[in-house]
Write a structure and sequence with these properties.
By secondary structure, the chain is an alpha/beta fold. It has five helices and eight strands; from the N terminus they run ββββααββαβαβα. The protein has an eight-stranded mixed β-sheet. The model has no long low-confidence stretch (mean pLDDT about 85).
Length: about 170
């Protein structure tokens, strides 16, 4: 079990993240374990994963199309988005699509090469939990969520840009 940041708090995580082995298979887990599997594995045989006795969630790779999840979204209380490296920003777009176009209202988690420097921007596009990269400090990372008191542009959390909010409040 590892710690994650969820809703601004460091908590212990019950989910087991499964990444493909070199041969493409997934590691064996207890039948009742809560697992986060690659979307590609879910697509291969959804019936197996729907019958899984523990909770099952999926993670999207940057090249995955979130529109493909729409018919299955009701099955998931968690969708994770993988950031294979710090400079790959496609996960931000995936999050906005899941939240704004496809109305996913459950937990949305950022995982992979996630640094505390990214938390504020990730939160603004709709992520509510974060798995910080193993070699980065988790302690103190929650302060990054409050690094800025406001944003100029609109985002998932604040749909009105600052100039509109300023005119309305004046």
């Amino acid at each position: 079990m590892q710690n994650i940041i969820k809703h601004g708090q460091v908590i212990s995580d019950d989910w087991c993240l499964l990444r493909p082995e070199d041969d493409g298979s997934l590691a064996k887990t207890p039948a009742d374990a809560d697992v986060i599997i690659p979307w590609q594995h879910w697509q291969t045989d959804p019936q197996i994963w729907q019958a899984h006795s523990g909770r099952c969630a999926v993670w999207l790779a940057p090249e995955d199309d979130p529109a493909d999840l729409v018919p299955f979204m009701r099955n998931f209380t968690l969708i994770a988005v993988d950031f294979p490296n710090f400079t790959d920003g496609r996960g931000y777009s995936i999050a906005r699509l899941l939240r704004e176009r496809y109305s996913f209202a459950q937990e949305l988690r950022a995982l992979g090469d996630v640094w505390q420097d990214q938390l504020q921007a990730l939160w603004q596009v709709g992520f509510d939990s974060f798995e910080i990269k193993q070699d980065k400090l988790l302690e103190g990372s929650t302060a990054a969520l409050e690094a800025f008191s406001d944003a100029y542009q609109s985002n998932y959390r604040q749909p009105e840009p600052l100039f509109r909010r300023s005119i309305i409040s004046a």
